[in-house]
Amino acid sequence: MDMLDYGDYPDDGDYPDDLYNMMGGMGGDYGDYGDYADYGNQKMEPPTYAELVTECMIPTLQQGAAMLSHLVFFCISINIVAQVGMPSVVVHILSIAVGFTSVAMVFENLILHIIYLSVLGYTLLLITSLLDIKQKGAYVGVGLVCYLIFWEFFIAEPAEWHRIRGVQMVLVMKLISLAFDCDHGVVKEMPDIVQFYGYVFFPGTVIYGPWMSYSTYCKLTNIPIVNFNWVCSLFLTCVKAMVCLLISTCIATTIFLTYDYRWLHAYRDALSFRFSHYFISYLSSLTCIASGLGFKSNSDSTTWDYPVSKPSLVEIPRSLVEVVTNWNLPMHTWLKTYVFKTTKQFGNFTAILMTYAASSLLHGLNFQLAAVLLSLGLYTYIEYVFRKRLSEIYSACIQAKRCKKCEHKYTSSNVFVILINILFGALAMFHLAYLGVMFDSDPEKEEEGYDMSHTLAKWSELGFASHYVAIATYIFYWLIK
Description:
- By secondary structure, the chain is an all-alpha fold.
- It is 66% helix and 1% strand.
C-alpha cells in the first residue's frame, strides 16, 4: 500500500530546548511571578489585569529582552562584517568567537561538553574523509549517538545533561547532515577547521537552533545589503516572539483557573507548552534574520524570512499530520532528508520507525519524550490511513493532507467535507492536549527531566483516553479497509 509521501510527515515533539530550560540556563526565575503557575488541578481565582501586568507581563518581557539582546547583537555584528566585504575566513572566525562567547554566557563550564562533542564530530568526519569511506553519514551518526548514550548514562549529571540536551541535539544534527552532504556531493570537500567551527558555533543557531545545513551557513559570505524590509522582518519577528512568550507565561497559565475539569487543565498546560515552543521558534528565526540569512531576492527588492514553525497550522490543525509537519520545519526537513529517505529502501514502515527512533535518540533516552513521539507516530499513521480510506469510499477531500490538485467528487468547498475536516481537526486538538499535558512546568522535575512515572501518572489522570480513541479508530479502519 502506498502510504504517505513522508516528505511532509515525520517530525519530533520537541524543539532544541524549551523555554523553561533556557530561562533556567540564563539564571532567571521563569514563571515565578506570583502563584499563577502553581495551580495543579484545583480551582483558583484568576489574577486581576493590574496584577497580571505588573507581576507577570513586565518581568517576563524584561527577561525575554535580556534573553535575546546579546544574541541578536552578535548576529548583527556578523551581518555587518559580511556586508563590508571582509574575507570569508574573518566571517568564520567571528562566528566562532561570538558563538563560543554566547554558549559560555548561558551554560558556563558546561560548554566543555559541547567542545568535546564537536571535536569528536570533526575527528570522525576527518577520518572517514581520509579513508575515503562512502557512507560517512551512517558512520558519523552511529558514532555520535553512541557517544551521547554513553555520556548520558555513565558520565553526565542528569540536571546538567537535561540543561544542554537541546544544544547537543542541534550540534549532532549539524554534524550528521554535513557527513551526508559530503557523501552526496552537496558539500564538495571537507570544510577546514575554521569553516567547520564557524558552522558549529554560528550564534544564530548554536543555542536555540534551528538546525541549518552547512550550505545555508556558507551563504553568510554572500548576503545582500540589508534594507527596510530586513528591519521590518526583524521587528515583526521580535514582536511575535514576545507575544508568544507572554501567552505561554502569563495568559495560558491563567485561563480555566475557576474550572475544576481535568481536560481544560490539560488543554491549558499543553497550550502553555506549545507557545513556549513558538517563542523559541521565533527567537531562532530572529537570530537567523539578524545574521542576514533567509533572504529572497528578485528584480524589485530583497525580503527576509526564516520560518521555523507555523503556529496557526498547529493551533487550528486539519490533522495531526499537518501538526507534525509545521511544528518544527527545519527538524522536519532534517528527518525527511537524512533519516526517512536514507532508510526508505527498507520499506515505508521501517523508515517511519527509524525516523521516530532517530528523533527520540537525539532528544536523549527519556521515557517521556519517547512515549510522546511513539504515540504521535502511531496516531498520525492511523489518522492518515483511516482518512485516506474514507476519502476513497466517499470520493471526498477529507484526507489528512490537503489535496494539491483535488480530483474528488466532493471538494473542500462542500459543506459536509468542511464539517468532517473540522471534526478531524477537533480530534487532533484533543490528542494534542493529551500528549502535551505532561510538559507542565514542575520545577522539581524539569531540572532533571520527567521520568516514566510522571508520564504515566499524567495520562492516567485522563484515563488514557487518547490512546483508546486511537485504538478504536484503527479498529474501525481495519473493518472498512
